[in-house]
Write a structure and sequence with these properties.
The protein has 330 residues and is an all-alpha fold. The chain has one domain. The protein contains eleven helices and no strands. Helix 3 runs antiparallel to helix 5. It is globular.
Length: 330
């Protein structure tokens, strides 16, 4: 659902001018990436082992991210060359200069000391920020020394501070390295996910899950009816998305084999939806076809992305993952 919303909102081919919104138009699709950050923080905490060494721990996560992002970026560059040869125009109006290529290939185009956006495969800004979140998280865990209470307090302070900076001081932090708006979006949601991971690890009973799910949903429903002054960002990051995560853990049917398979493929969907759109632009430039912005094109493109992502998952990602696993054991 999240990926469907991101794809249909971010692709100019499919964007229907903002008419497709959530909750009666109250929430836009712009903050759906925050749910990815929350899930990433939740999984980081839920799978963390105290004996992990930083180099090994961060290597496993970069190994899961970097090779596939690199392949998608190289593919995008090659397609951009073909597009330029055919049209004498720049694909997505990007410069494709050396700094842009290097930062896009190395996942350093967002969140680090020098920000270079938009990138060649711009959705990968999320991966850039997530790597930084992983580094900060590991430092926090070392500071806490396995004390869950300290982890929750520190995560809460990081999360809330980042959210306030993003919502209320958006302009002031634009040029501050590691505290730019994109960083703060990542910190606030990621460490909210860390707190969820701690809670789910400490409270095993379903009644606890219900309490932590129903109460946020009730608050959101109430705030959705009455006129409220809170930013949508706070409602999504601190009420709706945590409720979604708790609900997913609570309901066993959600953890079916089909859902797990779709979840495994979802990374490829996110990574490749813009490169696939670039290929479509190249093909359309050859056959000189104009596509109308309709629900039909939106749904067709989404289905196409999932099909291509499924093929890439089984033909590229899984073989590479097996190879990396064998190499790490040898």
């Amino acid at each position: 659902m999240v990926l469907f919303s991101i794809i249909t909102n971010k692709s100019p081919l499919l964007n229907l001018g903002g008419v497709i919104e959530f909750y009666g138009g109250r929430f836009t699709f712009g903050y759906l990436v925050e749910l990815f950050f929350i899930i990433s923080g939740f999984l980081a905490e839920y799978t963390f082992h105290e004996k992990d060494i930083f180099i090994n721990w961060i290597y496993r996560r970069i190994q899961r991210i970097f090779p596939y992002a690199f392949i998608a970026c190289v593919f995008s560059i090659l397609n951009a060359i073909v597009y330029y040869v055919l049209t004498r125009k720049s694909l997505f109006n990007l410069s494709y200069d050396i700094p842009q290529i290097i930062t896009s290939l190395t996942l350093t185009h967002a969140g680090w000391i020098i920000e270079y956006t938009p990138a060649i495969n711009n959705p990968t800004w999320y991966l850039c920020i997530m790597i930084i979140c992983f580094i900060v998280y590991f430092g926090l865990k070392q500071f806490a020394k396995n004390d869950k209470f300290i982890v929750i307090i520190c995560s809460f302070l990081v999360s809330l501070t980042a959210a306030i900076l993003y919502v209320d001081y958006h302009t002031e932090i634009k040029r501050i390295p590691f505290l730019r708006p994109s960083n703060c979006r990542g910190y606030s949601a990621f460490f909210e996910g860390v707190m969820i991971g701690v809670v789910l690890d400490q409270f095993k009973r379903k009644t606890d899950y219900i309490i932590y799910t129903i109460i946020p949903l009730a608050i959101v429903s109430t705030l959705g009816i009455v006129k409220r002054g809170w930013s949508d960002y706070y409602l999504l990051v601190y009420f709706i998305y945590p409720a979604v995560v708790f609900f997913s853990v609570l309901v066993p049917q959600i953890q079916s084999r089909i859902v797990r398979s779709l979840s495994a493929i979802s990374f490829e969907v996110y990574l490749w939806h813009v490169p696939i759109y670039g290929v479509i632009l190249t093909i359309f430039s050859i056959i000189n076809v104009e596509v109308h912005h309709t629900y039909f094109t939106m749904i067709t493109f989404t289905v196409l992305v999932w099909i291509v992502a499924t093929v890439l998952y089984f033909m590229v990602e899984k073989p590479l993952a097996v190879g990396f696993h064998k190499r790490s054991k040898s």
